[in-house]
Write a structure and sequence with these properties.
Length: 387
């Protein structure tokens, strides 16, 4: 087995010598010629049933070779048998919930998590009743006979809480555990190897890595992938092949980007701790960080996301966003450039106010996705913005 960086460079490219190409082929076909009706019918049945491939793709909603290559690459990096790609991270989560709703109507969710995920779960529109807890140690006591899924996000968005995945899997027993590992990426954390049934990403973030593609993926066993593919075909939440091409393009540099951004974040987090305008810094790599012992065991590093609370509250946070010059004031994360945003007013705006306050999403909280700029330029930008 090759090491991670070698896998990242070559993942999903295994047939290139046979095809006599060096870059991934971009197949934009919406439909495929059917020379033999019986063969075509058999391929249609196989793909609708969730098969990963067939002799004839039939129609792009059922299968696309460019998308399949990106999926194969991501599955390899996650240590999963399969990966199913969707048009966005939220489309991926929706498909997972709709599938699990056929097994039970109760989903147990550990807060905090991404604001739109929280909103989707609370709405119940995917056919499941969400029960929210804030302590992963309560998972076992909150399971019900109809619990079909336990959901955790680690590191969590935006407070960067860490949850022990192995412990959550043990507590969940026979109930599948799904992990949103967007912040960690398979560079730093591989939930399936820790016992999780599903791992999903907003691939818009680190996996794509350049702020130019929206995508989502669910990685799991091949058996669990079948209904997810069927759901994708039925609902049409497919990833466009050009988006898949861009996503696949990001994989070879994933480890380099994640580790370089992490090195910058480690410097900035420590400096922010000592700044008089900052009330609190949330970063798993700081001494005394909650569940910091999971760095080096569950995670190989603390990542490149930092959240910090301004002593001046909302007004100070708004001033920061208005005054940064090197950083970009915008939602999203995991891009090559640094992005700063206000969770309470943007990504988590739809989360109820009492929940936001109870989970540490205060009016003065800012979330910084550290990029690949020179760390001294980033620090000088923060200093002038805090003025």
């Amino acid at each position: 087995m090759h090491r991670f960086q070698t896998q990242a460079v070559h993942a999903g490219r295994e047939d290139f010598n046979t095809l006599c190409v060096h870059a991934p082929p971009l197949d934009l076909s919406t439909t495929y010629p059917i020379a033999d009706l019986d063969v075509g019918s058999a391929c249609f049945d196989a793909l609708i049933g969730g098969a990963a491939t067939a002799a004839n793709p039939i129609y792009a909603r059922l299968h696309n070779p460019t998308v399949a290559r990106a999926e194969k690459g991501i599955a390899l990096l996650e240590g999963a048998e399969a990966c199913v790609a969707y048009a966005s991270g939220m489309a991926a989560l929706t498909a997972l919930l709709m599938d699990r709703a056929q097994h039970g109507k109760h989903v147990l969710v550990v807060r905090p998590l991404y604001g739109t995920s929280d909103h989707l779960l609370e709405s119940g529109i995917c056919g499941m009743q969400a029960e929210f807890i804030t302590d992963a140690g309560q998972i076992a006591s909150h399971l019900r006979p109809d619990t079909a899924l336990v959901m955790i996000e680690t590191p969590s968005n935006p407070t960067l809480n860490l949850i022990d995945i192995r412990a959550a899997v043990v507590a969940a027993g026979k109930v599948p555990v799904a992990v949103d590992s967007t912040f960690a990426t398979p560079v730093l954390q591989r939930p399936i190897e820790l016992g999780a049934t599903y791992v999903w990403h907003s691939a818009t973030k680190f996996l794509g890595g350049h702020g130019d593609v929206i995508a989502g993926v669910v990685c799991c066993s091949e058996e669990n992938a079948h209904p997810l593919r069927t759901m994708r075909a039925a609902t049409g939440a497919l990833l466009h092949p050009l988006a898949a091409y861009l996503l696949h393009r990001g994989l070879p540099t994933l480890k380099l980007r994640v580790e370089a951004a992490q090195a910058n974040a480690m410097v900035l987090a420590q400096r922010l701790v000592d700044h008089p305008a900052v009330a609190k810094v949330h970063y798993p790599g700081l001494p005394g960080a909650p569940n910091g012992h999971l760095i080096g065991t569950q995670m190989s590093g603390p990542g490149s996301l930092i959240s910090f609370e301004m002593k001046g509250g909302h007004d100070a946070a708004a001033q920061m966003m208005a005054k940064v010059k090197v950083m970009t004031s915008a939602v999203s994360l995991g891009s090559i450039d640094s992005l700063i945003q206000h969770p309470a007013g943007l990504t988590h705006r739809m989360v109820p106010e009492d929940v936001k306050l109870a989970t540490g999403i205060t009016p003065g909280l800012l979330r910084l996705s550290v990029g690949l700029e020179d760390v001294e330029d980033l620090w000088e930008d923060l200093l002038q913005a805090m003025g």
